[in-house]
UniProtKB/TrEMBL annotation:
It is found in: Cell membrane. InterPro entries: Efflux_drug-R_Bcr/CmlA, MFS, MFS_dom, MFS_trans_sf, Sugar_transporter_CS, Tet-R_TetA/multi-R_MdtG-like. It comes from Isoptericola peretonis. Residues 18-402 form the Major facilitator superfamily (MFS) profile domain. Coiled coil: none annotated. This is Multidrug effflux MFS transporter. The chain crosses the membrane at residues 49-72, 84-103, 109-130, 142-161, 173-192, 230-251, 257-277, 289-308, 314-340, 352-373, 379-399. The lineage of its organism: Bacteria, Bacillati, Actinomycetota, Actinomycetes, Micrococcales. Pfam families: MFS_1. It is a multi-pass membrane protein.
Amino acid sequence: MPAPVTPALTQHRFARLLPALLLLLTVFGPISMDLYLPALPALTADLGAATSVAQLTMTACLLGLALGQLVAGPLSDRFGRRGVLLVGVVAYVATSTLCAIAPTVELLVVARFVQGMAGGVGIVIAQAAGRDVYSGGALIRFYGRLTVVGGLAAIVGPLLGGQLDTVTDWRGLFGFLAVAGAVILVAALVAFPETLPAARRTGGGFSQTGRDFRVLLSDRVFVGAVLHQGFMYAALFAYLSGATFVLQGIYGLSPQGYALAFGLNSAGFMLCGFLAGRAAERWSVPGTLAVGTGLAGLGALGLLVSGLTTTPLWVVVVSLLALASGVATTSPPATTLALVGYPRLAGTASSLLGMVRFGFGGVAAPLVGLAGAATILPLGLVTVVAVVLAAVALLALAARARAAAPTVLRVDLDADPVHS
């Protein structure tokens, strides 16, 4: 079994805290996206904004998360992980504070965009630093844990925001995020060593970054894995966007009942993300991807059927659970496929993966509401189309692997993250 961290890092005073810190870094981006949603009506009224303009605060954060990863990844490949991370966390604290005191909704939208960019830094650095310090089975297990923590943050965010909303207003919620960012900043200053030595960094400025992008985008296995995850996360964000209207507006669940259903899905997401890391390591990376895609497809199909005919509540709840669990199952093996072949470009590869995930999610989320809040059909259609496209990407990836070499989809469990 490979060592949990590379030998160069074991001498660091707080090396044992690094795995926990990397997991923590994945939290503040996704949780920023939707922690404040329970207070969105109050925010809209307080700032005298139109509902559509207030909803732009979430869209801006999503776009920022996508763009922030695209920028931070190549920068971290060139200048190292630690400096880029610290700049990102400082910016996160500053913009969260600005959100808390924003006097107009227009300024809030801008601040949310920058807050999203700063939050995206944590996601991409966590994935890239994990590729720096882990190898083999430990790498797959690490991405399984990232899936659990990052996905759980996005799903549980509104529930935590609802609890905080009982003791503070929407400005207080952003204040909470600023404090959380300050805590992460202290932790990073103390426990995050540089994981990418100078000898392994890229050079050449923007022209080299362009060449790195071309190298990655010419690899059909990488592109297949990234597109697969983009479509799967489009289905997940459609679910996050539409579940409230479906469960409360159509089926009349109370806030407590909605929280219970959401909690069930959170548990399924956590369990499947954890098991997927184990399955991909011990069984098969492509097999785990196929199982997760099929599970999500069953969930999406259940939602589509519920939109076409009247079905009991339990069918919808089980379908949502299957959809979320399927996405969680695919994330660790797909992330491993995307990053394992590029140890020197882990930041750039991670940035493209994150940008596509959140970018596709940002496009899919508003589509759920096009036909209003009185029908499940748009949610069913969006999720079915997204999962079908993810399956097509997976099939294309597998076909490319068979045409090129029988081991393209096999993760080398003995790979050295330093010398590979």
